[in-house]
Structures are given as structure tokens and as C-alpha cells.
Amino acid sequence: DIQMTQSPSSLSASVGDRVTITCQASQDISNYLNWYQQKPGKAPKLLIYDASNLETGVPSRFSGSGSGTDFTFTISSLQPEDIATYYCQQYDNLPRAFGQGTKLEIK
Amino acid sequence: QVQLQESGPGLVKPSQTLSLTCTVSGGSISSGGYYWSWIRQHPGKGLEWIGYIYYSGSTYYNPSLKSRVTISVDTSKNQFSLKLSSVTAADTAVYYCAREAPSGGDDYWGQGTLVTVSS
Asked: Is A87–B100 a contact, with Cβ atoms under 8 angstroms apart?
């Protein structure tokens, strides 16, 4: 099974900051990577698919990059409503696998 | 607009079978092109993919749960279901149903339902 490792596990940043989260796959997954946002008590929301494609309706301050084993998720200018936990997920192989999550807080 | 809604008991006794149903509205499971997934989240923890089913009935289960999991589909009711047998307290979690799009992303999710395993 493919293992997904996210870092950091938690992050504190100020409004307006650029925020970056990384995700590493245990083997090459090409660009078959999603990013999700989960707010407390809510279901996850798909933000980015195929490593870098923004889901419809998602603000352009969110972006993703990478291929192979190393991926990056970026919020260009952190907004208060971005406080959430973010997960990467690979869909190159079965079973699907999520990273352990990155909890983002406002400083 | 596609909507998914989980339903089922919120409390299950140890050693019994957890049974949940996901009702899909705003789209037909039998139209094809999508996989219908179950994902769970232990309290305060991350996301665990359980498995999925295609409208044809083809399934794939996470090997970590495979011996206890059954996912089925009822296209006439536009529903799919999860059964998890021999549950223990470690199966206490919020269970989500979701639609996996051809892009591989889970683009629609149910609101989630908390299932507690306790006597």
C-alpha cells in the first residue's frame, strides 16, 4: 500500500501569510493527488485534484504542485476562513490513502 | 446538485454488525462514471478509506478491513450500503459516504454519521 506523509502536522500563521504544506508519497504516484479542506464538524471538501487543478468554485489563492513523490499545497494569502485541517490523498493505487492531516491555525 | 445522506444506527454493540446506507439524490448511481465510497474518521483523527463500489456491483475494499467489510448497491433505490461485522470500540468513528469522480477526487460527500460501538 502507498503511504502518504504530510508535514507539518500543525501550522500557525497570520492572516495574509503565504502557507505551504508538503505531502510525500512512499512511491511514484505521478500526479494522482488530491487536496482536501476539512472544517470542524464538517465533511472534507475537495480543493485540488490531479495535483494542481483547482476544483470549480475554489478560490485562486489555493494552489498545488508536484509530481512523482513530492507535492506542495499553498495558500498564497491566508484568510480567516481558511482555518481548517488539510489532507492530501493519493488515487494512483488502491487502496486510496490520505495523509495524516495538517491543522492550520491563526497566529 | 448531487447530495449524499448517510443513515443508520448511531449505536452498535460490540461483536455486532454496523450497517449504514447512503442515499444519493440529484444524480443516478446507475448512470455510471463514478465510484461510490465509504470513508471513516476516528474521533479527533485522520481519514481512513474503507472501500468503494461501482454501479455494476464491482467492489474494492481496504485490505485492513477487507475480512469484515461488505459494500453493496441498490440502483433501484439509488442507494449504496456499508456493513462492517464484528465491530469493536476501535470502529467508533464518523462514517462518510462520498462520490469519487473520474478525476479521482471525492467531489461530493455526505454530512457524516457518528457510529459509537458500546454495550
From this structure: no
* Per-residue cell: B22: 447512503
Grid cell of B17 as nine digits: 454488525
CA end-to-end distance (rounded Å), chain A: 36
Is B36 an 8 Å CB contact of chain A?
no
Q: What is the gyration radius of the CA atoms in chain B, in angstroms? A: 13
Angstrom distance (rounded) from CA B103 to CA B108: 13
Residue B103 has pLDDT above 90, yes or no: no
Residue of A nearest to B96 (CA): A43
Closest-CA residue to B89 (of B63, B51, B115, B50): B115
Task: Please report the DSSP string for B14-53 in residue order.
Answer: TTS-EEEEEEEESS-GGG-S-EEEEEEE-TTS-EEEEEEE
The whole-number average pLDDT for the span A21-33 is 97
C-alpha cell at A86: 488539510
Which residue's entry shows cell 486510496?
A96
Asked if A20 and A73 count as a contact pair (C-beta separation under 8 A), the reply is yes
3-state SS assignment for residue B18: strand
- The band of B112, judged by pLDDT with boundaries at 50, 70 and 90, is very high
Predicted pLDDT at B104: 86
Convert the pLDDT of each residue in B57-91 to its tens digit.
999 999 999 999 999 999 999 999 999 999 999 99
Look at the block and give the residue holding cell 450500503.
B81
Please determine, for residue A100, whether its predicted confidence score (pLDDT) is greater than 90.
yes
Cβ distance B47 to A91 less than 8 Å, yes or no, reads no
